[in-house]
C-alpha cells in the first residue's frame, strides 16, 4: 500500500544494509516513522509493546527476528533461545507460534553455517505469502461487496463497519478486513466504511489513516455507535479480522468484536471475518475455553494517547486516581454468529466441515 504516494510494506529487510525495518505504529496516525530492529530483545519489544501489531504481521516479524539472530549466532542454543524469547511476547495471536514453528522446523536440520541464508529466505517467503493471501482474501471479499452493491439503488454506497485495525498495517500488505474494501474501491464501487475507534488502544485511528491514504470514504465512530447504526439500517455488512480462529470457526479478535456480532445478528446484518489460513488453530475447537486471552497493562485503559493543542504526542489519564482497571485484549465470537469466513481459498460458513473442505491438508 502507499503512504503519500510511496509504496511501503509494514516490515522489510533493507537491501542496502541488510537490517530489518518496520513502520513504528506507536507514532501513527500522527507521525510516520521507521524503526530498525536488530537484536532478539528489540524484536520482542516490537511485538510485545505493539510497535508492530496484527496477527499476520506479528508472525512475519518473528520470522525476521529469527533470521537476524541466525546471522549473529546460528547455533542450536541460539535458535532455541530466540524462539523462546519471541514466543513469550503475545499469547493470543496464533501466527506467532505458527511462524516460529515453521522457522524451527526448517532451520533445525541444517548445518549452522547454512542457517542464516535459509532463515532470511524463509522470512521473505512468509512475508510474500502473507501479501498474496491477503490479496486473494480481497478478491473473494470483493464479490460479496459486488453482490451487496447490486441489491442497492444504483450508485448508493455499500456501508461496511470494521472493528480494530485489520488493514495493511496489521499484515505485511493489503490487510485482511480492509483488502476487500481496497479492491472494491479500486474497482470503482462506491463504498463507505464506519471505523470503530476500538478502545482502549484506538486502532481504528490506524484504519482511518490507511483509508484516508487510499482515498476511501469513511467516518470514525465510537465503539458503541455500531448497534445504533445497524438499527437505523446504515450498515450493510460487518467485516473484521481475526487473531486466532478455531477448527470449528470460533473467532478470537480484538475486544468488542463479540458485541458487534451480537448487534449484527439482532439486526440481520451479515457479519464476515477475513481469515488468512495461518490464523487457524487446528488444535483447538472451542474458542471460549481453548484460546488464552491476553490481559494487557491497565495503563492502556486508564490513559489515552493523542496530540495536545501544541501538536505534541502525549498521554492523559481518563480514570479517577487509584481506580482499578481491567484490560482483556480479545474476546471470542462463537461460530453461530459468523455469517461467513473470507479466506484466500474462498468464502465458507464458520464450521468445522466447511473449513476442513477448504483446507483438507490441515484438518484433523
Notes on the structure:
It is a single chain. The chain folds into two domains: about 1-130, Four Helix Bundle (Hemerythrin (Met), subunit A), CATH 1.20.120.420; about 140-360, Rossmann fold, CATH 3.40.50.10470. About 40% of the residues lie in helices and about 20% in strands. The protein has twelve helices and 18 strands. The relative contact order is 0.12.
Outline the fold blueprint.
Layout: E1 2-3, E2 6-7, E3 11-13, E4 20-23, E5 34-37, H1 40-48, H2 55-72, H3 76-87, H4 94-107, H5 112-150, E6 158-162, H6 179-186, E7 191-196, H7 204-214, E8 218-221, H8 226-231, E9 237-240, E10 244-246, E11 251-254, H9 257-267, E12 271-274, E13 280-281, H10 287-290, H11 299-302, E14 303-307, E15 313-317, E16 330-333, E17 340-343, E18 346-348, H12 352-358
In short:
With 364 residues, the protein is of the alpha/beta class. It has twelve helices and 18 strands.
Amino acid at each position: 500500500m502507499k503512504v503519500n504516494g510511496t509504496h511501503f510494506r509494514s516490515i522489510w529487510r533493507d537491501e542496502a544494509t541488510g537490517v530489518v525495518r518496520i513502520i513504528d505504529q506507536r507514532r501513527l496516525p500522527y507521525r510516520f516513522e521507521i524503526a530498525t530492529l536488530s537484536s532478539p530483545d528489540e524484536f520482542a519489544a516490537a511485538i510485545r509493546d505493539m510497535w508492530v501489531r496484527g496477527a499476520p504481521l506479528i508472525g512475519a516479524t518473528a520470522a525476521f527476528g529469527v533470521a537476524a539472530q541466525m546471522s549473529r549466532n546460528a547455533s542450536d542454543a541460539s535458535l532455541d533461545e530466540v524462539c523462546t524469547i519471541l514466543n513469550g511476547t503475545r499469547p493470543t495471536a496464533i501466527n506467532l507460534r505458527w511462524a516460529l514453528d515453521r522457522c524451527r522446523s526448517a532451520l533445525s536440520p541444517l548445518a549452522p553455517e547454512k542457517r542464516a541464508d535459509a532463515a532470511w529466505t524463509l522470512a521473505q517467503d512468509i512475508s510474500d505469502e502473507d501479501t498474496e493471501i491477503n490479496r486473494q482474501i480481497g478478491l473473494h471479499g470483493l464479490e460479496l461487496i459486488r453482490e451487496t452493491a447490486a441489491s442497492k439503488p444504483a450508485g448508493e454506497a455499500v456501508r461496511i463497519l470494521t472493528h480494530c485495525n485489520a488493514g495493511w498495517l496489521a499484515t505485511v500488505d493489503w490487510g485482511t478486513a480492509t483488502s476487500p474494501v481496497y479492491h472494491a474501491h479500486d474497482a470503482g464501487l462506491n463504498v463507505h466504511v464506519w471505523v470503530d475507534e476500538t478502545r482502549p488502544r484506538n486502532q481504528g485511528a490506524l484504519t482511518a489513516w490507511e483509508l484516508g491514504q487510499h482515498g476511501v470514504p469513511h467516518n470514525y465512530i465510537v465503539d458503541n455507535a455500531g448497534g445504533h447504526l445497524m438499527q437505523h439500517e446504515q450498515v450493510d455488512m460487518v467485516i473484521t479480522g481475526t487473531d486466532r480462529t478455531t477448527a470449528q470457526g470460533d473467532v478470537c479478535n480484538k475486544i468488542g468484536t463479540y458485541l458487534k456480532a451480537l448487534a449484527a445478528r439482532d439486526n440481520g446484518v451479515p457479519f464476515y471475518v477475513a481469515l488468512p489460513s495461518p490464523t487457524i488453530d487446528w488444535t483447538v475447537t472451542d474458542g471460549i475455553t481453548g484460546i488464552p486471552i491476553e490481559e494487557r497493562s491497565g495503563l492502556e485503559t486508564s490513559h489515552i494517547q493523542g496530540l495536545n493543542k501544541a501538536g505534541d504526542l502525549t498521554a492523559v489519564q481518563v480514570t479517577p486516581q487509584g481506580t482499578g482497571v481491567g484490560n482483556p485484549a480479545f474476546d471470542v465470537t462463537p461460530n453461530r454468529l459468523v455469517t461467513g469466513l473470507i479466506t484466500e481459498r474462498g468464502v465458507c460458513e464458520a464450521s468445522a466441515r466447511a473449513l476442513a473442505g477448504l483446507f483438507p491438508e490441515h484438518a484433523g
